[in-house]
Amino acid sequence: MTPYETVRAEVNEAGIGVLTLNRPDKRNAISIRMRREISHCLIAWGDAEQVGAAIVTGAGSVFSAGFDLAEFRETARFDELLDSSSRYHRDVWRFPKPLLAAVNGPAMGGGFDLAALCDLRICAPAASFGHPEVKFGAPPLVTPLRWIVGDGLARDLALTGRAIDSGEALRIGFVSRIVDANRLPDEALAIAKGILESPAETLRFVKGYLAAAGGRDFEESFRVEHDLAFRDILLPRARRGL
């Protein structure tokens, strides 16, 4: 087990990495340090022959409440915010092996994005998803969500900021199944083990073209929805104390 401060990272005997967001006292808010630790872990697992697939979940009763907003009040850290966020999102998207989100509770803002960047998602009944940050002037990431649920629903969720519960998430296809909370870890492991029945080189190939699909590619959309939004919208608002 690699020692981290904000996540737990373990690899089991089946070759499945389990990455747990581990700031339960902060509702697993995604800080600069957490983004860097997630990136470090996924890059290491991407290169490790003993890791065939990975699962992301949250400690406690929340998957993630989103980005740690306290850091947006620290103007001296704006460069760190942009750099860590750009790297982290791309590292999750480019992870070369199957990545499953086991959403154990609310996944809001950046937590919703993290789940959307994974290859597949299962959730507990208490899970919920939403982009409330749009109400506070932060443009949400839309394109990965659009690829999963379609353009109309992605526009709805991005513009209204409304939250959806686990039942609606299943109905619109954002999650593939709802599992009792006490069974969620075992169900995620069972799915990952089933995926690993396919040859590693086949899975890498499939991940390669999945990441490049969707019409407008991830890089093109991400530069607008994330990098440009950060520079032109989010950080200027934070400088003004909004």
- Content-based structural category: alpha/beta
What do we call the CATH topology? 2-enoyl-CoA Hydratase, Chain A, domain 1
Major β-sheet annotation: 6 strands, mixed
Quote the average pLDDT.
94
CATH class: Alpha Beta
Number of domain modules: 1
**Structural shape:** globular
CATH superfamily: 2-enoyl-CoA Hydratase, Chain A, domain 1
Molecular structure report:
By secondary structure, this protein is of the alpha/beta class. The protein has one domain: Alpha-Beta Complex (2-enoyl-CoA Hydratase, Chain A, domain 1). The chain contains 9 helices and 9 strands. It has a 6-stranded mixed β-sheet, sandwiched between helices. Helix 2 packs antiparallel against helix 9 and helix 4 packs across helix 5. The relative contact order is 0.14. The mean pLDDT is 94.
Features:
45% helix, alpha/beta, three-stranded mixed sheet, 242 residues, single chain, six-stranded mixed sheet, 9 strands, 2-enoyl-CoA Hydratase, Chain A, domain 1
Short description:
The chain is α/β, with parallel strands linked by helices. It has helices at residues 32-47, 78-93, 110-117, 143-149, 151-160, 166-171, 184-195, 200-212, 218-239; strands at residues 7-11, 16-21, 53-58, 99-103, 107-108, 120-123, 128-130, 164-165, 177-178.
